Amino acid sequence: MEITLDLRLPRDSTSVPAARRLLDASLGVLGVDEPIRGDIELMLTEACTNVIRHAQAGDDFTVRVSILDTRCVIRVIDSGRGIDSRTVATAEEPAALTAESGRGLQIMRALADDVRFRNFPDSGSLVALEKHLIYRQDSLGSRMSLPVWSLGEHPDGHRLRSMNEADDAELQEFATRLYAMARTGRTDELVPYIESGVPVNLSNEKGDTLLMLAAYHGHADTVRALLERGADPERANDRGQRPMAGAVFKKEPEVVRVLLEADADPWAGSPSAVETAKMFGHHDLLSLFEEAAESRASRS
After folding, report:
1. Could you confirm whether domain 147-299 is CATH 1.25.40.20?
2. 3-state DSSP helix/strand/coil % of the chain, to nearest 5
3. What's the half-sphere exposure (Cβ side, CA atoms, 13 Å) at 205?
4. What pairing do the DSSP bridges indicate for beta strands 2-10 and 60-68?
């Protein structure tokens, strides 16, 4: 299941409840648990309120929501000053919590599973919030979502099994083949499944997406094809690693270039791609990151 909600809203206080109610209504139809819906309402309120507080007069802003099975990603994009990512770290200090913006940052961090901030000089900012969804039993969302997969021990090695323990060998084999296609760079086989409805950000039990698997194993053409079909270059696995860091670890410069072309952030993640390159002495990749930063600055 993949659902996208795209709202372009005026810089007006009435935009906040409008966005909140539209998203909550969508989550309600899908059958998302009430506590999760409440967290998402508050996260969205804080992000939108910040935009309205800092945007320039007459500006519009965008709320873009992607629901991918049990994952909800909210991106709030504005053309004003927005949240300055350089001040995010200071919000950890108790004194900063006395400021309204500091409290908003803390609320978003407390409720979201992942929070990312990006500022673009003279052209606005992005706040990305991620939340894991829990659906009520027998709800529309639970019926439409793909099963969550986990690796289980097997005499022949690791194999996929369904978290709900359903004995569906055919579905297990299908999921295993998809991950193998990404891992081995079989782009021509993988793409038709994506275009037929398989979520492009499908991930395994470790949180590794198809994009992460392709990037880590050095398949630039597969990475490019997935990005062209909406794969998220900033989606981290359960260890906080992003596809760029995986490509750097395996020293795959062509994959790194493709990800940079898609505006993947080499400073994001833990460890980030930059930190990984420094750790292993990949000076040629560090030069690529510096060139990308200069190119972005010149485009701003």
Report:
1. yes
2. 50, 20, 30
3. 13
4. antiparallel
Q: Do 2-132 and 147-299 share a fold?
A: no
Of 27-36, 74-83, 90-99, least confident by mean pLDDT is 90-99
pLDDT surpasses 90 at 254 = yes
- In Å, what is the CA distance from 22 to each residue of 29, 64, 150? 11, 12, 33
Asked if residues 228 and 194 have their Cβ atoms less than 8 Å apart, the reply is no
Kind of pairing, strands 159-162 and 124-132? unpaired
Distance of CA 8 to the CA centre of its chain: 20
H helix and E strand count, the chain: 12, 7
The CA R_g of the chain, rounded to the nearest whole Å, is: 20
Residues facing residue 72 across a β-bridge: 67, 131
Which residue in 66, 53, 69 sits closest to 23, CA to CA?
66
Q: Which residue has the tokens 């906080």?
A: 240
Q: Report domain extents, the chain.
A: 2-132, 147-299
The amino acid that residue 299 corresponds to is: R
Site of tokens 């309204």: 100
pTM of the model: 0.48
Q: Which homologous superfamily is 2-132 in?
A: Histidine kinase-like ATPase, C-terminal domain (3.30.565.10)
Higher confidence at residue 243 or residue 296? 243
Average pLDDT, the chain: 78
Residue whose C-alpha is closest to residue 190's, from 206, 204, 172, 174: 174
Q: Which residues have C-beta within 8 Å of that of residue 38, sequence separation ≥ 6?
A: none
